[in-house]
Amino acid sequence: MTSTSDSPEILMVAAEASSSLYARRLLEHWKSQGRSVKAFGIGSREMEALGFEILGRSEDLAVVGIQEVMAHWGDIKGAFHRLVDAAKVRKPKVALLLDYPDFNLRLAKKLKALGIKVVYYISPQVWAWRQGRVKLIRKVVDKMLVVFPFETEFYEKNQVPVEFVGHPLLDEIHSELTDEKLRSNARARYGIGPQDILLGLMPGSRNSELKHHLEVQISCAKELVKDDPNLKIALLVAPNFSKEQIKAQLPQIDFPLILIQDEPFHMISLADVILCASGTATLMVGLMDRPMVIMYRMNALSAFLAKAFVKSTAHFGLINLVLGERVVPELFQEQASVSELVRHLKPLLKDANLRKEISKQLDRAKTRLGNRGATVRVAKSLEDLWSET
Predict the structure, then answer these.
(1) What residues contact residue 223 under an 8 Å CB cut-off, 6+ apart?
(2) In this structure, are 276 and 143 located in the same domain?
(3) Contacts of 19 (CB under 8 A, 6+ apart)
(4) What span, in angstroms and rounded, lies between the C-alpha atoms of 59 and 242?
(5) Are residues 15 and 150 in the same domain?
(6) For 141-154, how does the pLDDT look when each residue is reduced to its tens digit (9 = 90+)?
(7) How far apart are CA 135 and CA 153, in angstroms?
């Protein structure tokens, strides 16, 4: 079954929380334009509600680390084969692969052999680790759509067709997020007063991240509340989890904990300081000018391999990479102990002037990520490819 020009088919892989948000925005854009696009592949429940045909759920496939991947290998392998089989039958105009590099680069190789155009959106961090993958990217990817300006030079140097589209998170920031009256009213609904300091906990959007981060972050909060009983603590629940799932994994708590689930930027706007798992969330927090401490923990084997592979970058926190300097602390593996995290958080919670200074530095990220409208530019790039086929 070959797609028609009036209603082209597109295979999409959005296997993680951030990727599924960007893919959802693309589907919403086409819908708002009255454009009929038959999209199928791996995505979220929100994408499915927009008519996306699910062949694998991002909620089931968002894992990181060798041991975690092996534990979910059956789900991952099954989704991979369903995608390849569907591509053989349906011959979509183009495939849009978002992040998730080990899976997507292997899939790109299969799709290329089938004569399907491959567009990669949200680049693997090949400029930071495992740079040898760029040779495979050159062979199997027709176009890289990158969201960081420094990625453009890397791909041009390696003869990979590339377009800088800007970062889609810029489109998520709206005026109400910076309205102090609205923020004050929203905080009040959770019992947070104008003079209260709120620490937001963001342990991550993957099950493996919850396993490694949740208890550590709760322990940090416990120590900080001992030091300052007036401190407010909120656990910001990622969109792909339910509050019930989070409650089931919480350790015993002897201090007031507020559970909040909302659009990520809305949740972040309520906090004064964030303890944040490394990943796209650090960009969200940075774009909201919120001081943060970045952490990441994983199983020992995955951590050993990560340290071995990361050769050419001074930072692992995306916000620090964008800013080109260590604006906020980042603590990896054994460094991300309760005592060290607390040591870095205390000054941020106690010193309003320090928070203002860091917020000012973080504000520079907005101008480094391009202009708003990334989703529209991605749509145009895909539509240009459709017209060529």
Answers:
(1) 338, 342
(2) no
(3) 13, 58, 98, 99, 100, 122
(4) 11
(5) yes
(6) 999 999 988 889 98
(7) 16
**Helix (DSSP H) and strand (DSSP E) numbers for the chain:** 19, 13
DSSP state of 332: E
Torsion sign (Cα): 52, 57, 62, 66: negative
pLDDT at 170 (0 to 100)? 94
Instruction: Give the integer Cα–Cα distance in Å for 256 and 75.
Output: 38
Q: How many residues does the chain have?
A: 389
Region at 196 (left for phi over 0; alpha for psi -120 to 50; beta for the rest): beta
Whether 92 and 3 have beta carbons less than 8 Å apart is answered as: yes
Q: Mapped to the 3 state alphabet, what secondary structure does 70-129 carry? A: HHCHHHHHHHHHHHHHHHHHHCCCEEEEECCHHHHHHHHHHHHHCCCEEEEECCCCCCCE
Query: Residue 353 is part of a domain; what is its CATH number?
Result: 3.40.50.2000
Q: Which residues contact 106 (CB under 8 A, 6 or more apart)?
A: 80
pLDDT cut 90: percent of the chain above it: 64
- Is residue 342, in this structure, part of any structural domain at all? yes
Same domain, 225 and 310: yes
**Does residue 92 share a domain with residue 194?**
no
Token pair 């520079």 in the structure block, residue = 364
> Are 205 and 279 in contact, with CB atoms under 8 Å apart?
yes
Closest CA to 316 of 304, 331, 302: 331
Residues 232 and 255 in one domain: yes
Within-domain flag for 1: no
**Chain centroid offset of residue 205 CA:** 8
Range of the domain at 97: 9-166+373-388
Q: How far apart are CA 341 and CA 330, in angstroms?
A: 9
What digits encode the pLDDT tens for the residues 350-362? 999 999 999 999 9
Q: Strands (DSSP E) along the chain, which ranges?
A: 9-14, 38-43, 53-57, 94-98, 117-121, 143-146, 162-164, 198-202, 232-236, 258-260, 273-277, 292-296, 330-332
Number of domains in the chain: 2
Taking residues 7-22, what's their average pLDDT? 91
Report the C-alpha gap between 256 and 233 in whole angstroms: 7
Do residues 378 and 165 lie in contact, with contact meaning Cβ atoms separated by under 8 Å? yes
Phi, psi (deg, nearest 5) at residue 129: -150, 150
Judge if 161 and 223 occupy the same domain. Answer: no
pTM for this entry: 0.83
